[in-house]
Amino acid sequence: MEPAGSMERVKLLLRESLTDIELVSYDLDKIVRSLRRKDSEYLEKISLLLEKNDHDRAKAYAEEIAMLRRVAKLIYQSSLLVLTIKLRLETMVESEELYGMLPQLARLLSRISESSPLPNLEKEFVGVKAKLEEAASIITKTTDIKAEAFDTEAEKVIKEAERLALMKLETTFPRVPSHDLREEAKQRVLEYIKANTDSFSIEKCAKDLSIEKGEVESLLNELIKEKKVVIKREEELV
Known about the structure:
Layout: H1 3-51, H2 55-94, H3 102-115, H4 122-143, H5 151-172, H6 179-195, H7 202-209, H8 213-225, E1 231-233, E2 236-237
Antiparallel strand pairs: 1-2
Helix pairs in contact: 1-2, 1-4, 2-3, 2-5, 3-4, 3-5, 6-8, 7-8
């Protein structure tokens, strides 16, 4: 392919990639909106269940919210990375001087798929990635630029996106009601102590109740302050 034809091919690939990445960005935003709706729905259910003292079901919904928010964090991170690619593509379409950044952009898109796999958008990612890699290959052959030189920059962008995604998650999703759930956990520890007065162990209690050791210690201290548990000897609790 002649140099002029090569550059026209690169321009075409960039324009198509920009259109595709805009669709991916839209789909990611749509997923986040859906997760937020589901999160709000579950929060309302938790509040109603806690009012009815149905702690088991409230806990189940709280665990589901935790899973939804882990997914949301990945989506936010991917969305920020996709936005980075979108903005750079918009600039490249207008400026051939920046075509040397194509290998970096292709590598960044690959890292998105590796760090935040999104099965529903895999086809779109693969399509954009293939176009960017083709364009990068053309540029590399004509400019002697190697993709490896940009890997460090890609990692920095990904780490920053992860940090911003966590901040976004904390400011966007409301806190899950936890006071009554903590009271439930405290009651479980108290009942466990009553059933194991002669052989109580914080480590075993944590394991048997699937609660972190530090949390058991904290709950135990609260029970002692509330005089629901009295230490008679170093080894015995009543």
